[in-house]
Every structure is written in C-alpha cells, then in structure tokens.
Write the structure tokens for this entry.
Amino acid sequence: MSILQFIKENNLAWQPSFNGEIGNGLVGYRGALIVEEGKQLSPDRILPPKVQAKQVLLVADEANVTFFSAELESILHFEAFFERYKAFFTPATLVVLYVTDLDKNGTFTYEGVTIHAYSLAESSVWNELLDLSGLDKSELKKLDNKKKIEVLYEGLLKTDCAAKAMSFAEILSHKGESSKKIMGAV
C-alpha cells in the first residue's frame, strides 16, 4: 500500500492542497496529516484533529516516502507522528521537521531514520525549505503545484540538511515554551 492510499483509507488527510502524481513515478502531497483524531460527536460530525502534522510536503514512490517535511506544534508530538507513519519511512527518507517549541536545531536518528529538526518561529515550512535549498521563490511562482513540489524536492536532494548531531533525548531537552509568531497585516 502506498502512503497516499494509507492516508485515504484511514481518513488522515486534513485540508490537502495537492494530492497526486508529480512525475517520474513519484507522488506528492501538500496539506496537513492527522496524527491524533478529534472527538467523534455523532456519526457525521467530528471535531478537528487533536494533533496534526501541519504544512506537510511529502514525496513518495510506490512503496516509501522519499521526502517528508512538516510543522509539529511540539516536539512531544513527534513520537505519535512517527508511530502512525513510520511504515513508509526508510533510512533513505529525507525528513525535515519544523517544530514550534524547539529552541535548538538538531539532527537525530529515530528507529533507523535520520530526522533533521529545526525551530520554526515565524515562517512557513515552504519558505523555510526554499531557504534551506537555496531556491528562488520568484522562479517557483511561475510553476504549477505539481512542478513546484518536484523542483523543491530535487533541490533539497542536493542540499545538506543536517544540523548539530544529537540524540532524541537531547532534542527533547531543547523543548521550550516558545510559540509561533503570526506575521501578517497590522
């Protein structure tokens, strides 16, 4: 089963903006993914997810996720996230997480998968990935969603995404109280 089939069959997509083929045998997804479901109020009414991976950008082949990035509100949500989706990650998967309450960036290995975790204070995952890859935002604006994902993915494959090497316990010790600053019109 592919990651997109898993997401669909388990109703884990939350407000997707793209979900489909991007070319070269790869599929992409942009949106949020449910980590912990909201309370079921009635057969046709459910509350929003309690925990979600927001601003998800993923690329996958038939069997595995080759690239995954998202925002987690807390590093404490990582284990639940990983438990739910780990079947699709391999040691070769490029994982870049942006965590709102993380005070220091770090790279750690969890169940054989390397995770690059960065603090996210005020930007979007998309903009952070563009900065990390060195791609020009204005060039991507001309492309459709499918091509944007493909170009960003290819750019990130050529990028060293590593931060300071740490254990997962060390990463947890850098959980702060910070929260994301919402930037916009005043």
